[in-house]
Design brief:
The chain has 185 residues and is mostly helical. It folds into two domains: 26-63; 71-180, no CATH class. It is built from six helices and two strands. It has helices spanning 42-63, 92-101, 104-109, 131-147, 153-161, 167-180, and strands at 19-21, 24-25. The protein has a two-stranded antiparallel sheet. Helix 5 packs across helix 6 (167-180). The radius of gyration is 27 Å and the shape is elongated. The structure holds iron/sulfur cluster (2 copies). One iron/sulfur cluster (SF4) is lined by residues 81, 85-87, 89, 92, 115-121, 131-132, 135.
């Protein structure tokens, strides 16, 4: 005779239930393991996912040489630099985030390759980040990514046409484009 499967029915006086109010134990799906045999590891998986994302958020900037970007609040106080930036960069925080996540096109688009690393924006940063150093590393990484073919050529060409490369990078960019086009830049 097949064994009848006993169904667990939570009871109000069940001592394993969490206390909602003094003397009252709640019957709550997500807090009773026996109610969710298939999902009892869900919390652990979720925590593992959150932990891994946080670790990546920290590990990536450290590995790519921009550890200070972790401390950027994205408060955008540095936007107050305005006309004190000789390269007319309006959104310094965008450059920080782009450097942190390794988004090269975002870095170029926001004028990162025009930055002169003069430090004019540093005094506006609420956590006193070494912005010129971060921007310098961002520029190096863009050039490396370009030369390794990790940025689409049409984007590089467009950025060059729009004047998004500073003078110090133009020769190198033109030479690279020239090489890609077999001698025609
Ligand atoms: S360091 Fe770069 S972004 Fe900051 S003020 Fe100088 S040129 Fe502008
Ligand atoms: S002021 Fe500093 S902390 Fe705030 S967004 Fe700009 S770089 Fe980040």
């Amino acid at each position: 005779m097949a064994r009848e499967k006993r169904k667990y029915t939570p009871k109000r006086e069940d001592g394993t239930q969490p206390i909602g109010l003094p003397g009252i134990r709640r019957l709550q799906f997500f807090t009773n393991l026996r109610d969710r045999a298939l999902t009892k590891n869900l919390n652990r998986l979720a925590m593992l996912g959150i932990g891994a994302s946080l670790a990546l958020d920290v590990a990536k900037p450290v590995a790519t040489g921009v550890p200070q970007t972790i401390f950027c609040y994205e408060c955008r106080a540095c936007y107050a630099t305005q006309d004190k930036c000789p390269a007319a960069i309006a959104y310094q925080a965008e450059l920080i985030v782009a450097a942190r996540v390794g988004d090269h096109w975002r870095f170029i688009k926001n004028g990162g390759m025009k930055c002169l690393r003069c430090g004019g924006c540093v005094s506006f940063c609420v956590v006193n980040l070494d912005l010129p150093r971060i921007f310098s590393r961002g520029q190096q990484r863009v050039m490396e990514a370009m030369e390794q073919g990790r940025i689409p050529r049409r984007r590089i060409r467009r950025a060059l046409e729009e004047g998004l490369f500073g003078r110090e990078f133009i020769d190198r960019v033109v030479a690279w484009l020239d090489k890609q086009n077999g001698g025609r830049a």
